[in-house]
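Researcher: Please translate sequence to structure tokens.
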Amino acid sequence: MTTSSNALLDLSGKVAIVTGGSRGIGKSIAKNFANHGAKVVITSRKIDSCQTTVNEIIEGGGKAHPVAAHMGNLDDIEELVKRTVEVYGGIDILVNNAANPLMKGIGEITPEAWEKTLNTNLRGPVFLVQHALPYLERSSAASVINILSNAAYMYAANHLLYPVAKAGLEAATRSMAAQLAPNGIRVNALVPGTVDTDMVRAMPPAFQKASAEASLLGRAANPEEITPMALLLASEGGSFMTGHTYFVDGGQSYR
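Model: Translation complete:
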């Protein structure tokens, strides 16, 4: 008997942590996961922002819980895993979405800027997986999704730190996928293009315009256009997908 597409995308009973889940791409992914049955932990630095997203999910009939955590802080990461397990009993899905897009080129990078950017964008996701690993191993269908950036695949002048961190996270994705596959844990990466989020709106207007027009489709994406791929990677619909990087960028990368 053929399994329906709706059943393959069902996340009922699954517990998902979405970092940077209070806004932008992370918020859209969290709400979509909740709409498909997942119990979602929303985490970002500000508890009020997390709670706002949680309230929206609950009002829509979903299940969610807020946890304030900074992905650059290892103690916060450990506490995030602990709180998630206390509230929901386990962890099935991790979405490493939180990011620090600090723009610094060679010649102006300080040790403090390096540490701040790499800790949040690379160390944090790796250590979150490591802390959650005992619970992912107990899951019947565990999935890790690392959100990258197409900046890692372009000539990003004066923008070294963020692309370096995201390129490192892609390498970590492949390594973790190879190591964790025997335990039934799938690890993939997703690369958005330019998306209409608060992070992009904080950039200079000329940068926003050029970034949006650089895609083949000639525009920025809405966050909701990124979520279907994340849902596929998190669900049984993506059960034979691991160790790869998937682009949802409107044809912007490799140009």
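Researcher: Any highlights?
Model: The longest strand covers residues 185-192.
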